[in-house]
Amino acid sequence: MNTKDRILQAALRQFNAIGTGQATVRSIAAEAGISHGNLCYHYKNTDELIEALYLQLAGRVAPYAQMAFSEGISLEGVFGQAWQTFGLLYQYRFLLIDFVQITRRLERMKQNFQQLMDVRRQQFLYGFKQLEEQGEMKPEPLPGHYELLITNLLIVGNNWISEAEVQFGDKGDAVVAHYHRAMMALFVPYLTPKGLRAYQALTADDGAYGGKADKPLR
Amino acid sequence: MNTKDRILQAALRQFNAIGTGQATVRSIAAEAGISHGNLCYHYKNTDELIEALYLQLAGRVAPYAQMAFSEGISLEGVFGQAWQTFGLLYQYRFLLIDFVQITRRLERMKQNFQQLMDVRRQQFLYGFKQLEEQGEMKPEPLPGHYELLITNLLIVGNNWISEAEVQFGDKGDAVVAHYHRAMMALFVPYLTPKGLRAYQALTADDGAYGGKADKPLR
DNA sequence: TTAATTTTAGAACAAATGTACTATATTTGA
DNA sequence: TCAAATATAGTACATTTGTTCTAAAATTAA
């Protein structure tokens, strides 16, 4: 593997373990097994590493984000897309945990993210419409209600990892399953009987996303 | 005002403005108009300042937390308690924004917070039962569903400020109203017709928590 | 009043860190 | 093959920061 990749890998491990504020060019270079002079030759400073990893993650999430709310999406599709995305986000969890601090310095990342959230909002709205047409989701109970629901979905989607870090520490897959299950539950009261049957099948003990989520985490 | 209080005030302002990672004993002392030697005489380091402010916040939130889910609570009571708490959290927003980084160093705070979340969870469950008895809330649609809902409520309650910081920056009251409105909407699909009427009265343009939330924030 | 205590400012120092620079070593391409 | 380029290790330096120490100033209490 080439040096740039080894650096990124070491940076990712260390950012996740101790946060972007504690990791330095020297500590990351040590983890990668190279000199810090060499690291700075490839990446001027830690901010460049953060940005590179952000772009890496964005590139890996994009396919799922596209797929998620394409035409004819079903509740099962939403589950699957969220599951894949949750897994990826967890691999790059330092980005979500340190996001505010990072975007205070990297204005470009902040604006990129704001645009991304606007797109997500549209995708959610469109996805809801699709699910309604599939007969899995009901129309919104009050005017403008789905806008508010989406606000909550975005908060949960962006911050479950911070919550997990404080509540459970570094428990890997079990944590991902736990919060995926929780977020998906936000759909329940808006589902039609048909949608609810799909939900119950997916979350059943022998379903694709059931059972394993409920082991005690602490 | 005595020196200790002036220090805490300066620290709070600076933590909120630039984060706990950027503020130093020297910068805070400068903001308070004293020497850093003097600051260290009162508080050994920034961690002691963080802990002092955390305790200050905990003391100010406690009354609302108690009141929130006492016997015979109504939806209106829930709205009011959340409103008060949201306002207080916003004043100490650095704590929520930097919480993961902080608790990595201050194990005691982390454990205190974990216990607090356990209590909150019980309070929510009890509160739901109260609202059901008042005839404002329906029983859970699926077994264990309210546990999952509470997980989401806690994530939103603890992280709306981080989301606000990235999305809107420092917009004060308007931001608080915006996210309060969003979080309260999570109750909607579980409300009885009676509960829904209460909700609509509270969020009406001329209601206690209506209107003002919907000015554009960006 | 005056001695003890508390508070304050500032200096001093070591450790850490970002940044730049230098000198080899390695790889590439003609 | 061999010159040009790229990559690497290590050094050097200025800054920042936490921490400790000293001495002066202010306050307190007898």
TrEMBL record, chains A, B:
SUPFAM superfamilies: Homeodomain-like. It holds the Pfam family TetR. Keywords: DNA-binding. One of its GO terms (molecular function) is transcription cis-regulatory region binding. InterPro entries: Homeodomain-like_sf, HTH-type_TetR-like_transc_reg, HTH_TetR, TetR. Transmembrane segments: none annotated. PROSITE patterns: HTH_TETR_2. Residues 24-43 bind DNA. Residues 1-61 form the HTH tetR-type domain. This is TetR/AcrR family transcriptional regulator.
